[in-house]
Design a protein that fits this description.
Blueprint: H1 8-31, H2 37-70
Amino acid sequence: MAKTIFTLKQQIGCLQREIALRERLYPRWVESKKLKPESAEFELQCMKSIAERLKSESALEHDALKYMEEQGLQNSPTLFDEPNV
């Protein structure tokens, strides 16, 4: 099976959906003692940090592509682009 390449936009969307899911589930899990409150908080904050990092990388890549276009430089495929399958 060929390895699938996901764009940063796709990765960010997936991560945001996962964060939203955990924000809904974790309070119930904490209440039922399936998850410690500090573990829930750590996991959510860590995932939100990852999302912010990916958003920053996406913005930097977007700026770099814009600069390349303005300079008339060759645009090579990046993780920001939709894959050609």
